[in-house]
UniProtKB/TrEMBL annotation:
PROSITE patterns: GNAT (PS51186). Gene3D superfamilies: 3.40.630.30. PANTHER family: AMINOALKYLPHOSPHONATE N-ACETYLTRANSFERASE-RELATED, AMINOALKYLPHOSPHONATE N-ACETYLTRANSFERASE-RELATED-RELATED. Residues 1-156 form the N-acetyltransferase domain. Its EC number is 2.3.-.-. It comes from Streptomyces sp. R41. This is GNAT family N-acetyltransferase.
Length: 174
């Protein structure tokens, strides 16, 4: 498996293998945020097929209670492994590590992510990876149903944060 930043050429394959019904978190919206410099979209690949995604939102999470508790903390958003038969094989952990490496490369010493109260499996993974609860919040989002109807959602969540080890890089003389 390899993990790469999303490119415009990846969008058609993402739509083919992992259709997204999110109103603002679909592949093209994520890629547009990446192109604008606000995020980095990560894609794990197996045998030239995308098997998930995650987006590092460098500007942090929008919920006011998260911003107040951890201002300036980048957020790992939309972590997803597909198909479900590939879950629990290390792909999600690899996506988290790849996001952390990119934050460290930018000199950022922490990473945050949200987990729904109804997702104890993901919460256990994040705890194993060193993420600790910081603040409760409500994740508000919209998605489109199978007939194109809009559904508004409000899920209780916890924002988790991990302090990263940022090693200062020495400048090599030329």
């Amino acid at each position: 498996m390899r993990i790469a930043d999303c490119s415009v050429e990846d969008l058609a394959l993402l739509d083919r293998f992992m259709p997204s019904y999110s109103v603002d978190g679909n592949h093209r919206a994520r890629f547009a945020r990446q192109e604008a410099g606000g995020s980095t979209c990560l894609i794990p690949w197996l045998d030239d097929r995308p098997v998930g995604h995650a987006e590092i939102r460098w500007t942090g999470y929008a919920a006011p209670e998260v911003r107040a508790a951890r201002p300036g903390c980048p957020e790992l958003n939309g972590l997803f492994v597909w198909p479900g038969s590939l879950r629990s094989r290390g792909i999600g952990s690899a996506l988290v590590r790849a996001a952390e490496e990119r934050a460290i490369a930018r000199g950022i010493g922490l990473m945050g992510l949200g987990v729904g109260d109804d997702n104890p499996r993901a919460a256990a993974l994040y705890a194993r990876l060193g993420y600790r609860p910081t603040v409760a919040y409500v994740d508000r989002y919209a998605h489109l149903g199978s007939s194109g109807e809009r559904h508004e959602c409000a899920d209780p969540c916890v924002f988790l944060v991990k302090e990263l080890s940022v090693v200062e890089q020495s400048v090599r003389p030329s």
